[in-house]
Amino acid sequence: MAIRIAVKGSIIEGGNSWIYDFLGISYTASESFVQQLRAAGGDDVIVEINSPGGYVAPAAEIYEAIRTYPGHIECRVVGQAASAASIIACAAENSITPMGTFFMHNCIGSASGNHNDMRQTMHAMESIDENIMEAYRAKTGMSDEEIYALMEENTTLNARQAVKYGFIDRVTDSAADIAQANSAVTGIAASAGGFVDLMAIDADRLAAMREAYENSRVASGEGGETMEKDNMRDEAAETTEEQAEETEAAEETEGAAQAETEEETAEETEAAEETEGEQAESEEDQAGELEAAYQRGVLAERERISGILDIAAKVPDAMVRAALFTEPISAEQLALAAMRAEDAERTGYFAKACADVDASNSGQVAAEVTDNANDASNEVDMLAAMLKERFE
Hints:
The chain is α/β, with parallel strands linked by helices. The chain has two domains: 197 residues, 2-enoyl-CoA Hydratase, Chain A, domain 1; 90 residues. Helices cover 68% and strands 12% of the residues. The chain has 15 helices and eight strands. Strands 1, 2, 3, 4, 5, 6, 7 and 8 form an eight-stranded mixed sheet that branches. It starts with a strand and ends with a helix. About 6% of the residues have low confidence.
């Protein structure tokens, strides 16, 4: 029985996994994948791929780990192998289920700064594209020109086309594979919108998200604060038991005369314990309320991000990024802002057109043409009158 290792969701570096955990987005961290592959110890492995892609560097690490694995290994596309995931799919013998897709394109990035910074980024992206082409060329045997043309066109291949071009070795036809593909494909749309561009997130907002994530871990018992409270409760319980033992010993030695007094002390101790219990319950209730409030905040943020992503294709990229990260607003507010920006742009075009007409002196030209036409008409009338007077 082959060991199955999944490449699902966005492909990322392990150090960034916390933000995906915080947002509830599926991901594959390169470090975790490599550890799982090493643990296979040379046994047969099937790498199941259903990913919209992600960062090139961790994808390259996974690619190399698969390519150099000492045992038999197969990459099986059970949903989509898109972008960086398509590189991973080409690392070994591979297959694709009938409903699978294979998507390829040039690498995507961004830059800021002066023209030298832009030029350096462009050269770096071209070098990355050449590395990606190398992986495709090693798998297909196609020429650089053929591969470059497919990448330039942002090409999506279905299962049969992927085999035809040589990116995939075969289409699987077993009932189990088809059923697995059907279940995997249902997650494509959700995972495709789950890539987090960390470079586009404002540093302060990223720090705030990290703080909220750490607080959630503390509230759920993963941190030290809750454990400290538990220890305090345990110590209080131990102290109570010791006091009970001392009271019992005193009753045995002091006799019946003191038993009544000790019972009163025991009652007071019990009342104190009840008070401590009520305080503990109150603390637990407060922790529960904080956790519930946090979960509501997380849900609201997810819904806000999802709403913005739904309309992102109709709104300029700069406005989408600002709405998501630097100046957070809702999807409705973003749509209204986009409409206002479009109206302002149209108004600007009209004002510019009017200004161009005024600058051209077209009104003066029209007036001169009219005056000339009137002069010509008067001259014709005078000439007709002279001819009539002469020949009558």
